[in-house]
Design a protein that fits this description.
This protein is mostly helical and 226 residues long. Helices cover 54% and strands 4% of the residues.
């Protein structure tokens, strides 16, 4: 794929798995971005389309950078949630889902909304219950089922955390994009989301063989004893 042309050089050949930014890069990222910081974090090499016939360097860079941007943005929320309240991302989502519903929910409903298995949600609920953040209630119409509700302690966390997260969202977006640019971005993201949803029902595309460059041959006999 060639050498990456980025302020964050990556190792390996997969553009969806760049290395973590250096300390200097992380410090720079904490400041308000200037108009000069418009270079995407991930670039493919000049020989990308030769190595992958039929691929598009531009499309791969877009795909990889959307993926990376989502990872960075969610990382902000996840670190704040963990540092301030010792909550995992899934734990935070459970509290937000139940609180947002305005009524107790069945564990299966919570699992559906979080797109996880009922087994996974059971383990998460166990941990939240041990911390006194949720309580399990008998189902009024089916004795075989339970309902999940948040406790006053969890309500306090949600009331403190969600406003802070939404304020961060405003700060990050407004630091990078004007109001009109945010509207344009939302329109483009909607198109991308619909394309991704349609792709889920389509078979994987056939692709031409990769034109991988030969690796240099190492002399394994050099320095060996006779």
């Amino acid at each position: 794929m060639g050498r990456a042309r980025s302020a964050y050089p990556r190792t390996g050949r997969c553009p969806l798995n760049p290395p973590k930014p250096t300390k200097a890069a992380s410090t720079a990222g904490s400041r308000r971005p200037s108009k000069r910081t418009t270079e995407p974090l991930i670039r493919v090499g000049d020989d990308f389309e030769h190595e992958y016939p039929g691929a598009s360097a531009l499309a791969t860079e877009c795909y990889a950078n959307v993926y990376r941007a989502a990872d960075l943005l969610m990382g902000l929320h996840n670190r704040q949630t963990a540092d301030a309240y010792q909550l995992s991302p899934s734990g935070r989502q459970i509290l937000a889902v139940v609180e947002g519903a305005g009524e107790p929910l069945e564990p299966s409903v919570i699992a559906d909304r979080l797109l996880i298995t009922t087994g996974s949600v059971t383990s998460l609920l166990d941990n939240l219950e041990k911390r006194g953040l949720i309580r399990r209630l008998p189902h009024p119409q089916d004795r075989r089922k339970l309902l999940v509700d948040i406790t006053p302690a969890a309500q306090t966390i949600v009331d403190e955390l969600l406003p802070s997260l939404h304020t961060r969202e405003r700060d990050v977006m407004s630091a990078a994009l004007s109001t009109n640019e945010q509207r344009a971005l939302l329109h483009l993201i909607a198109k991308l989301q619909h394309a991704a949803l349609e792709a889920q029902s389509m078979p994987a595309p056939n692709a031409d063989a990769r034109q991988r460059a030969s690796r240099p041959t190492r002399d394994t006999t050099k320095g060996s004893r006779e």
